[in-house]
Amino acid sequence: MKIAKLIPVKIFSFKTDINLNPADLQKARKYIKNYYPKITVYHPKDDQNLLGLPHPYIVPSKSDKISFDFSEMYYWDSYFIVQGLLDSKNKDLVIGILDNLIFMFKKFKVIPNASRIYLFGRSQPPFLTSLIFDIYQKYNLDNKWLKDHIKVAEDEYTMVWLNSKHPFYHKVFEGLSRYYDVNNIHDLAEAESGWDLTPRFNHHALDYLPIDLNCLLYKYELDFARFYKIIGETRKSIKWEDRAEQRKKAVNKLMWDESKKFFFDYDFTKNKRSSISSLAAYYSMWSGLASKSQAQGLIKNLRKFEHRGGLSTTDQLLFNQFAFGAMPTQWAFPNGWAPLHYLVIKGLERYGYHQDARRIAIKWLKTNLNWFNKEHIFLEKYNVVNPDKPPIKGIYPSQDGFGWTNAIFERLSQEYVDRSF
Question: What is the pLDDT of residue 255?
Answer without folding.
Answer: 98
